[in-house]
């Protein structure tokens, strides 16, 4: 139904064929901007609180493990030498003073030097960031793209057999630990076939095996979410109306069902991408990938607190940034998110 100015008046899909064919009604552009602005402000406040909480918890847990002097000195070091080193590192001061000093350095980006490497902790973390971002990005793209292609193929064909085969294959992969699956890939493609490098980050080909390991592990979850969301959209009235109007299955799926189904899937995808950006320790260890996960693991085991604190801040920033961007994207796709 339209007014005399041609503006849609009906907001009920069931009572208007035109509205039903368009799918869920979108808010006017100016109204959407007003809705997103307070949403962004809330997300910004939550992001600041989350980062503050993460770095604070990291500081507290680090101090609960004790001073690192005994680990940094040889086994035959005297107690006096250990106490002197702990004092030089500032561990003889009250915890609250250490915390305030830590916050002061946090605001200026000074986390101090690594206890073992005697280099800037922040610099060491930033050296590992490109490798981590590269691996996380391509693993996310590959896993999500594979799941999207499989979900669209299942919906287009309507084949229960295809759904069962794809789902079963993905479930088998998900049941295999990443460590074991990575070793199998190395054995087949590096040792037996000699087709791909297995260690380090020396060429674009070095990405293939780590990306396959991570992407196939993410594939099943994305596939289940996409298939469920598309199946739910297939039951909506606007889809039946579009079929009645003579639109093809592919056209309805790609132009109407898929955009409406992406909103709930993107939220989980953002969480997974944030986790990948935090480093994937198992994959980095197996493939000797110079990422952030292996650096933080070594730093934790050695109580190298400056690296741990700088790494935690970066992980928190990336996690919050990715999920904030995803939430904004979802709110633009589905304005009900902004209302909630």
Please provide a written account of the structure.
The protein is built from 15 helices and no strands. It is mainly alpha-helical and 340 residues long. It has one domain: MetI-like (MetI-like fold, Orthogonal Bundle). α6 packs antiparallel against α7 (160-175), α9 crosses α11 and α13 packs antiparallel against α14 (305-333). The two termini are 28 Å apart.
Q: What is shown here, in short?
A:
With 340 residues, the protein is mostly helical. The protein has helices at residues 17-22, 29-64, 69-72, 79-88, 95-108, 121-157, 160-175, 178-192, 208-234, 237-244, 249-277, 281-286, 292-301, 305-333, 336-339.
Main beta sheet strand tally, sense and closure: none
Radius of gyration: 26 Å
Mean pLDDT: 79
Structural class from helices and strands? Answer: mainly alpha
Gross geometry: flat
CATH topology: MetI-like fold
Which SSEs are present, and which pair or pack?
Elements: H1 17-22, H2 29-64, H3 69-72, H4 79-88, H5 95-108, H6 121-157, H7 160-175, H8 178-192, H9 208-234, H10 237-244, H11 249-277, H12 281-286, H13 292-301, H14 305-333, H15 336-339
Helix pairs in contact: 2-14, 6-7, 6-9, 6-11, 6-14, 7-9, 8-9, 9-11, 11-14, 13-14
Features:
340 residues, mainly alpha, MetI-like fold, 74% helix, disordered C terminus
């Amino acid at each position: 139904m339209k007014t005399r100015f041609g503006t849609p008046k009906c907001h009920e899909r069931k009572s208007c064929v035109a509205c039903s064919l368009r799918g869920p009604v979108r808010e006017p552009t100016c109204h959407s901007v007003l809705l997103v602005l307070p949403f962004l402000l809330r997300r910004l406040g939550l992001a600041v609180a989350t980062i503050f909480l993460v770095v604070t918890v990291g500081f507290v847990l680090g101090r609960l493990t004790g001073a690192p002097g005994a680990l940094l000195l040889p086994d035959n070091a005297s107690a006096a030498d250990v106490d002197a080193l702990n004092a030089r590192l500032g561990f003889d001061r009250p915890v609250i003073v250490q915390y305030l000093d830590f916050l002061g350095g946090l605001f200026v980006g000074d986390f101090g030097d690594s206890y073992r490497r005697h280099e800037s902790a922040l610099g060491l973390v930033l050296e590992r960031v490109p490798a981590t971002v590269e691996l996380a990005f391509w693993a996310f793209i590959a896993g999500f793209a594979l799941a999207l292609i499989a979900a669209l193929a299942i919906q287009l064909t309507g084949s229960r057999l295809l759904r069962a085969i794809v789902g079963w294959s993905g479930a088998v992969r998900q049941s295999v630990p990443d460590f074991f699956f990575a070793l199998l890939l190395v054995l087949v493609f590096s040792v037996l076939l000699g087709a791909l490098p297995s260690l380090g980050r020396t060429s674009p080909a070095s990405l293939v095996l780590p990306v396959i390991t991570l992407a196939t592990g993410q594939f099943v979850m994305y596939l289940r979410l996409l298939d469920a969301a598309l199946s739910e959209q297939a039951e909506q009235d606007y889809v039946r109306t579009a079929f009645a109007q003579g639109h093809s299955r592919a056209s309805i799926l790609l132009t109407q069902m898929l955009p409406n189904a992406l909103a709930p899937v993107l939220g989980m995808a953002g969480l997974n991408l944030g986790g990948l950006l935090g480093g994937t320790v198992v994959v980095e260890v197996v493939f000797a990938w110079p990422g952030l996960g292996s650096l933080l693991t070594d730093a934790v085991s050695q109580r190298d607190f400056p690296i741990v604190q700088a790494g935690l801040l970066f992980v928190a920033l990336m996690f919050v940034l990715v999920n904030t961007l995803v939430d904004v994207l979802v709110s633009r796709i589905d304005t009900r998110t902004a209302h909630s």
